[in-house]
Design a protein that fits this description.
156 residues
Protein backbone atom coordinates (compact mmCIF):
# COMPACT_ATOMS: atom_id res chain seq x y z
CA UNK A 1 0.00 0.00 0.00
CA UNK A 2 2.84 2.40 0.81
CA UNK A 3 4.34 2.39 -2.74
CA UNK A 4 0.84 3.01 -4.14
CA UNK A 5 0.35 5.94 -1.76
CA UNK A 6 3.76 7.29 -2.70
CA UNK A 7 2.80 7.25 -6.38
CA UNK A 8 -0.42 9.14 -5.62
CA UNK A 9 1.48 11.62 -3.44
CA UNK A 10 4.00 12.31 -6.23
CA UNK A 11 1.57 12.58 -9.12
CA UNK A 12 -1.46 14.23 -7.52
CA UNK A 13 -0.26 16.03 -4.39
CA UNK A 14 3.17 17.20 -5.63
CA UNK A 15 4.99 15.54 -2.73
CA UNK A 16 8.62 14.55 -3.34
CA UNK A 17 10.38 11.46 -1.96
CA UNK A 18 11.88 13.09 1.13
CA UNK A 19 8.62 14.72 2.11
CA UNK A 20 6.83 11.40 1.65
CA UNK A 21 9.30 9.75 4.03
CA UNK A 22 8.53 12.47 6.57
CA UNK A 23 4.81 11.79 6.15
CA UNK A 24 5.40 8.07 6.71
CA UNK A 25 7.42 8.90 9.82
CA UNK A 26 4.61 11.07 11.16
CA UNK A 27 2.06 8.35 10.30
CA UNK A 28 4.03 5.84 12.36
CA UNK A 29 3.66 7.98 15.48
CA UNK A 30 -0.14 7.69 15.45
CA UNK A 31 -1.92 4.55 16.62
CA UNK A 32 -3.37 2.36 13.92
CA UNK A 33 -2.25 1.06 10.57
CA UNK A 34 0.57 3.04 9.00
CA UNK A 35 -0.95 2.85 5.51
CA UNK A 36 -4.25 4.28 6.67
CA UNK A 37 -2.54 7.03 8.66
CA UNK A 38 -0.36 7.90 5.66
CA UNK A 39 -3.40 8.04 3.38
CA UNK A 40 -5.24 10.34 5.79
CA UNK A 41 -2.27 12.73 5.99
CA UNK A 42 -1.95 12.83 2.19
CA UNK A 43 -5.73 13.26 1.87
CA UNK A 44 -5.64 16.14 4.33
CA UNK A 45 -2.83 17.75 2.38
CA UNK A 46 -4.79 17.40 -0.86
CA UNK A 47 -8.27 18.40 0.31
CA UNK A 48 -8.31 19.43 3.93
CA UNK A 49 -10.71 17.73 6.32
CA UNK A 50 -12.93 16.44 3.50
CA UNK A 51 -9.87 14.98 1.75
CA UNK A 52 -8.82 13.21 4.96
CA UNK A 53 -12.29 11.68 5.38
CA UNK A 54 -12.41 10.66 1.71
CA UNK A 55 -8.98 9.02 1.89
CA UNK A 56 -9.90 7.25 5.12
CA UNK A 57 -13.05 5.81 3.55
CA UNK A 58 -11.27 5.06 0.28
CA UNK A 59 -8.61 3.00 2.03
CA UNK A 60 -10.71 1.24 4.65
CA UNK A 61 -14.09 0.45 3.05
CA UNK A 62 -12.76 -1.66 0.13
CA UNK A 63 -10.43 -3.48 2.53
CA UNK A 64 -13.26 -4.28 4.94
CA UNK A 65 -15.47 -5.54 2.11
CA UNK A 66 -12.68 -7.73 0.69
CA UNK A 67 -11.64 -9.05 4.11
CA UNK A 68 -15.23 -9.90 5.02
CA UNK A 69 -15.73 -11.76 1.75
CA UNK A 70 -12.45 -13.61 2.16
CA UNK A 71 -13.34 -14.54 5.73
CA UNK A 72 -16.62 -16.15 4.67
CA UNK A 73 -14.92 -17.87 1.71
CA UNK A 74 -12.24 -19.34 3.99
CA UNK A 75 -14.86 -20.31 6.57
CA UNK A 76 -16.63 -22.37 3.93
CA UNK A 77 -13.37 -24.00 2.78
CA UNK A 78 -12.02 -24.58 6.30
CA UNK A 79 -10.10 -27.83 6.56
CA UNK A 80 -9.34 -28.17 2.85
CA UNK A 81 -5.66 -29.14 2.56
CA UNK A 82 -4.65 -26.83 -0.27
CA UNK A 83 -6.28 -23.83 1.43
CA UNK A 84 -4.34 -24.56 4.65
CA UNK A 85 -1.10 -24.88 2.63
CA UNK A 86 -1.82 -21.63 0.79
CA UNK A 87 -2.44 -19.80 4.06
CA UNK A 88 0.89 -21.05 5.43
CA UNK A 89 2.67 -19.85 2.28
CA UNK A 90 0.92 -16.47 2.51
CA UNK A 91 2.19 -15.96 6.06
CA UNK A 92 5.77 -16.40 4.84
CA UNK A 93 5.15 -14.11 1.87
CA UNK A 94 3.73 -11.38 4.10
CA UNK A 95 6.82 -11.46 6.30
CA UNK A 96 8.97 -11.14 3.17
CA UNK A 97 6.94 -8.23 1.83
CA UNK A 98 7.13 -6.35 5.14
CA UNK A 99 10.89 -6.97 5.36
CA UNK A 100 11.42 -5.79 1.77
CA UNK A 101 9.41 -2.62 2.42
CA UNK A 102 11.37 -1.90 5.60
CA UNK A 103 14.66 -2.32 3.74
CA UNK A 104 13.42 -0.14 0.86
CA UNK A 105 12.31 2.70 3.17
CA UNK A 106 15.45 2.32 5.29
CA UNK A 107 17.76 2.70 2.30
CA UNK A 108 15.96 5.82 1.15
CA UNK A 109 15.96 7.46 4.55
CA UNK A 110 19.52 6.49 5.51
CA UNK A 111 21.83 9.42 4.92
CA UNK A 112 25.04 7.84 6.14
CA UNK A 113 24.81 9.16 9.68
CA UNK A 114 26.29 6.97 12.38
CA UNK A 115 24.02 8.69 14.89
CA UNK A 116 20.84 6.96 13.72
CA UNK A 117 22.41 3.57 14.27
CA UNK A 118 23.72 4.62 17.68
CA UNK A 119 20.25 5.76 18.76
CA UNK A 120 18.69 2.49 17.55
CA UNK A 121 21.27 0.38 19.40
CA UNK A 122 20.82 2.49 22.53
CA UNK A 123 17.04 2.06 22.36
CA UNK A 124 17.35 -1.73 21.96
CA UNK A 125 19.79 -1.88 24.85
CA UNK A 126 17.44 0.12 27.07
CA UNK A 127 14.53 -2.14 26.18
CA UNK A 128 16.14 -5.57 26.33
CA UNK A 129 18.87 -5.10 28.94
CA UNK A 130 17.30 -2.60 31.33
CA UNK A 131 13.60 -3.46 30.70
CA UNK A 132 12.70 0.23 30.28
CA UNK A 133 9.14 1.08 29.34
CA UNK A 134 8.84 1.65 25.55
CA UNK A 135 7.06 4.97 26.15
CA UNK A 136 10.13 6.34 27.93
CA UNK A 137 12.40 4.96 25.20
CA UNK A 138 10.33 6.66 22.50
CA UNK A 139 10.31 9.95 24.38
CA UNK A 140 14.05 9.77 25.04
CA UNK A 141 15.01 8.85 21.49
CA UNK A 142 12.67 11.52 20.16
CA UNK A 143 14.36 14.17 22.28
CA UNK A 144 17.84 12.91 21.32
CA UNK A 145 16.85 12.88 17.65
CA UNK A 146 15.42 16.37 17.87
CA UNK A 147 18.54 17.73 19.53
CA UNK A 148 21.00 15.81 17.40
CA UNK A 149 19.46 16.11 13.97
CA UNK A 150 17.63 19.42 13.97
CA UNK A 151 19.22 22.37 12.26
CA UNK A 152 20.26 24.23 15.40
CA UNK A 153 21.16 21.27 17.60
CA UNK A 154 24.37 19.34 18.10
CA UNK A 155 25.40 16.67 15.63
CA UNK A 156 26.28 13.03 16.21
Amino acid sequence: MIPFLEEIARTQADIDGDEFLQIVGIAQTFPGAMGINTAVIIGFRMGGFKGAIASLLGVTVPSVICATGLFYFLLILQGVFWIEAAMTALKAAIVGIILAMAIHLGRRSWHGSFGWMAIAVLAMLCFYQFQLNPVFILLGTGIIGLLAFSGGGWKL
